[in-house]
Protein: Capsule polysaccharide biosynthesis protein
Amino acid sequence: MTLIASMSASNTKMEYPLPSGMHVVPSEQLDLRPDADIDVDLLHPPPVTGVKNIWFFWHSGYASMHPYTQRTVRAWHRRFTKQGWIVRITDRQPGSKGNIANFVDVTDSTLFPEAFTKGTLTGPYARQHTSDLVRWPLLLRYGGVYADVGMMQIGDLDGLWHATIANPDSPYEILSYAPSGAAHYSLCNYFLAALPDNALFARCHRLLLALWSVDGNRTTTEGMHANPLLRGVPLMGGEFTITEDDGTFIGPDEVSRMLTDYIIQGQVATAVMGLVDAESNWDGPAYCMEHFYAIEFMEGSQLVNELTAWNGQKAFDLLSLSLPEDGEKEDESQQQRQAREIVEACLSRSFGFKLAHGLILRVNRVTLGSLWRDNPGSDVVPGTYAAWLRHGIAYWCPDTIPDRVALPLLPPTKVGRLLEDTE
Structure:
């Protein structure tokens, strides 16, 4: 490995090892200005004039985001703006340049449910579902990439974009993550990419709005998993349980229903991907086989979690360790070795890393993301493995783009009209 001199968040000169299989992004391809200058650009993006948009959403705007997620968004900006991408953080703040109403008509019932328009979404995850509801309208109108603010980009986004979606000779029309070997099609809504008016996303959005319009316009996703329009689509999870603070135990069946309601947008995508609707000339399985460039879910975006057995405290503790000083060996407890292997694997093998929050905290109590949030600055302490990971994400790139998951041709989960219960 090569030692790379770098500037940490505290402007202390550090040296971090460049993992095998990675290269330093040439300085002319990076925005190396101070954070404050980048923040000005993020708060004042230019008008939309093309498809190379990187969309985010934070309900109260970029300035109020947690510092660790601001660092994530800045890293996207540093890496990709010199390649023509514009990072845009949308919000619902009155008077904000990022207000979603400046980009799409929030009063249009073909774009948003009544609960979004009126701001009446309820429940503990209302803000997450508000974020869900802006993704497809933005991508359908403008195109580009939508990512959660907790999505840390590692791989060559521009290279993969131009090899697939932007390549007129490529059959691929959408990018996302998907598990290999699954018995049904799916995608991860924390990273979506397509050109405007994508056929899959358009149908997904119609179905999602139909679920929100049931019973006089819903204000929460609770119970949406049972909607007849999703009949035949397997529920998510299945092995998770929850023990509440008061000792109440929630079994895997109920947790599966809760998880499916929480990620209802993903359930909708699975339904459309498995739908054959001859009347509208839609064959979801064939579309996935031909046009979906799926990046492997675990290797591509969850490797830190896999290598720590989804133990958020363990991931936080390991990444908070300091690297050995010059001339020192890794500690005898092998914790530094474990931390090094995690950082090297994530940087060199993954296309991204999604920090987990939301409902998962009821299952696992803490995650790396929640601990970074609750311990401000812990992700950038100079000389730690976390700071090494952060530096690599902002200034380095894997040598290759990820392979596509080999999707099998699966039987449809539904044959009939998109918005019709076929039973």
Notes: The chain is about 35% helix and 15% strand. Residues 1-12 have pLDDT under 50 and may be disordered. The longest strand covers residues 2-7. Residues 63 and 393 are 22 Å apart (CA to CA).
